[in-house]
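Record pair follows.
FIRST:
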Amino acid sequence: MTDVTLSAGAALLARLKTVGVDYIFANSGTDFPPIIEGLAEAAAKDIALPRALTIPHEHAAMGMAHGYYLASGRAQAVIAHTNVGLANCAIGALNAHVEHVPILLFSGRTPTVEKGRFGARTVPIGWGQEMRDQTSLVREASKWDYELRFPEQVTELVDRAHAIASSSPRGPVYVSLPREVLCEPCPAEFLDTSPSMTAHGLHASPGDLAGLAARIARAKLPVIFAQHGAGSAEGFAALARMTEAWGIPVCQYWAGQLALATDHPMCTSWDPAPLLAEADLVICLGVLAPWMPDAHTPQPDAFVVQLGPNPLSIRTPIRNFRADMAIAADTGPALVALEQALSEHKPDAAVRARFERVAARNQQDRAQALAAAAPDDAPGMTKAQIARALSDALEGDHATVLSELGCPMPPMRLTHHQAWYQEPHAGGLGWSLPAAMGMQLADPDRLIVATMGDGTYMFANPVVCHQIAEALELPILIIVLNNAEWGAVRQSVLGLYPEGHAARANQVPLTGLQPSPDFTLVARASRALAFRAESRAEFTEKLDQALAHVRARKGAALIDVSTRP
């Protein structure tokens, strides 16, 4: 691009393409003229850019970027409108931060001058949207932040933002973009050069892995807790082989991602208590909270290992789980290397006996979970029954299921490392629907199913999400498990006050969502196929129709199914 000059807005977009960004999820505002003109300018000059998508709400933009990364492993960009758009990004930034999902988050900044410079303030909101510290809206959720000061910074600034976001432990970064800076001319000679810096991973030392392997080999009752998957397909396969060979149960307590197939002989129930009561070696694999300290605790003489990209969760103020050994490493490569280190040891008869004992217990627990999800004659369906019916219908598909207070994991048969995602531990609701759309965008041939409660469906801003799904022709299946209440809040109240006034009266204030809207009308407004199901027979019939619709890539489909406790 020698002797070519672009606006800084166009240069920013072009550099995002160079570092590997495929999509820009954007909701525009009055600070966007240099961005929009930059898109047109780059097209006129035949300069490659990421595909820019109009996303009518920033929460959806953040969820789509999150889901795109889960499916592809590549960080994407979100551009929002000044402080108000950035405020709408905050929940998504919190979700991405807690889940170590890299997102390049940008927002405009109201022009810093009132006159005398191209791009200066031209409308009253230029004053109304000014903040002393706009970045404070997302600073705690960002690994790094900056404000573009001069147009010649664009190339190195984008390189640095992408490298930091994509380095372990991964996470979102934020850059504010003053309008008048984006309007300035920028030399383009370096825009298509290789990035000036690259992301780094984290790798466990051979000594640490050898020491951990030796502890596994001599442990009497080891256990693994996993919450954020196994890191990769290779890590998933290594964990499956390793735990089977060494008879190590894996507890996926409050898992956000699958680490071990649900039908694997070492996949245990969600209850940490019996495992911690006997374990002499506890390995916490990429976990935030492996158990609840007021209910569970390891044995005093147990050896506790924290392994993952952020083993001590250093940006979480209070997290006092033991770490007799902390190994900072990307989970997938660490599991592959640990399996290799274990090849220096040979399982003995005691290990084989442990495997048989643990496998028998797990088989019994799984049978009970499936029995609890079996059909019955009661009106409506439980979440477990819906999950089992969905799992049966997906048999043979290389599908991905997202659950946001939706279908629970235990009754489902989930067999690959991208089979399952649950809502982020940050608790920013409305995540699964836009995340499913982002995953579908990244992997068009995969069947994506987003399951959620009725409250979380409303949090997702469904009118916006359905509009996006229609505009981008995204054939996702949406299942709303509708109990007409904040079920999670109800359970939290009853858990803390089992004999309290709310429990005795069976009336839990501030949890009701009645009357329930007709969600099928919301979906049909954007030409989605939509059904309401009140019974198991209706649900299975409509599920078959909805799956046929999305498999044929005819668009999105929604089933609003009535649920009971």
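SECOND:
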Amino acid sequence: MIRISNLTLQRGPQRLLEDAELTVHPGQNVGLIGANGAGKSSLFALLRGHLTPDAGDCHLPASWRIAHMRQEIDTLDRLAVDYVLDGDVHLRAVQAGLVDAEAAQDGNALARLHAELETADGYTADARARKLLAGLGFTSEQMERRVGDFSGGWRMRLNLAQALMCPSDLLLLDEPTNHLDLDAILWLEDWLKSYPGTLLLISHDRDFLDTVVDHVIHLEQQKLTLYRGGYSSFERTRAERLAQQQQAYEKQQAQRAHMEKFIARFKAQATKARQAQSRIKALERLEELAPAHVDSPFDFRFRESDKLSNPLLDLSEGRLGYGDKTILHPVKLQLAPGARIGLLGPNGAGKSTLIKTLAGELQPLGGRLICGENLAIGYFAQHQLDSLDPKASPLLHLQRIAPGEREQTLRDFLGGFDFRGNRCDEAVLNFSGGEKARLALALIAWQKPNLLLLDEPTNHLDLDMRLALTMALQEFSGAVLVVSHDRHLLKSTTDEFLLVAEGRVQSFDGDLDDYARWLVDYRARQQPITTGEELTDKVDKRAQRQAAAALRQQLAPLKREAEKLEKELGKVQEKLAALETRLGDSGLYEASRKEELRLALAEQAQLKSRESELEESWLEALERLESLQLELENAS
């Protein structure tokens, strides 16, 4: 088990843990949560032996094999499948030893190493690596590409696959869902639920935590608190602890009053009925959720647009794609004020293509796209984080789009996104991915959009910011079209789903559980040859060639042994035949030749015993020889 006692951990001037206590038992799946900078990644480094405690103890079994998800890649020339196989360090050592033993023609070493290869499931390693890559969204063609050909997000998927490939007793995963789409997350959940070792993962995806973990560690105020159950259970338990605080009560009542006022005002208006229903749902959850986040640094809203058009967008007979390549056709989509739509669909089906077209980043290849006169789009996508001016501060970014606004008003607005004090004036250059995402959302929220197009808005956001974004979207009166792997966000902010698949965009009548089942059927239809048992039946060709060479090395001495036994058996049988001819002579049984008869019978018994031994050894040698020849045929 993992046992932490009286642990103090400090990084520079910051004390992350002080007198912390924790026990994690073998086989537990544990989620590690806490504010950014609280020390989650440092705790992982401690468990891996890369940090030492400043005080106290951190004990892990010495025999445990630890696998972790790397955050960097330094071997860009490796093929993707080979990079994943590199995760099994022991397997790679055995394979390298086989190459050396084959070059040295060392039969004994080859036999020993092939036994190790079989124990390490080396003959199925290539198939297992490809199955991992397929589950994480890689095509067969992508598996043969260089690591350096992939973007940063796909490289993180390779690092995840490499960690899963490594046999381990303790698996450490830091934000494994950050660069995954919903399809890959559903696959990863199934994989982790069947993982036999001890799992520790850092994640800001509450549904993912609920599905995978059975305990939650909360790192807060330099302490480690272990909660039983998933994230929702943690949230309820912690809410109960905080519910007595006056601050929690006041904040909760203020939010309730705000929502009730909105519901009373707009419930009867058809144009805002959906927003009222969203707030009713949020109100039902409010008593549970809010107290657990009373210390959240985020509190913002999307500023309301002054004017609306109905419809905001109207796309008919749309043919969407890039260059000469059509991805979606025909597409009919009309977005009215108040629409709340979540886009579902397998990886690469065209969800981002649809959003980019609606945002004006791509032109339709055909059909008609009409924009409302008062359309104001707020578009969020990951590539926009890179378009932020690295030398400008959050305040300067906002001043550029609101040059006539008072500075204090802008600072107050940025404070809702947790840019306060000096943080408002720091250059974006050294901001984390989460801080850049918050700034991008702040810029969108300021500009009074009436249509939000959001492509994976929760990437890099922590749990508190995700909740704040969810609440802000529920209060937003405009239309929302969102692609997200965060199922809680989708369930809390959308009223309908569109399915983007097989070149079409159509209504999906079902919930996210129905979509998960649809996805299983879709994968079975799309990849009947390379999924399931057929994929696992693939053999590592490199190991296969090595095995064949090793078998040929073993055949020669075995043939010599069989021939030697056969030759000796023949000699014994010749002696036995001659002796039996002598014993057929009736004169041998006369009384005067009694001693000669006794010796002949004794020799006959010895020869028959020897014949039996040699015959058995010879047959065993032939059986081994036949078995090796059959293996060689299968390996060729």
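COMMENT: The first strand starts at residue 2 and ends at 11.
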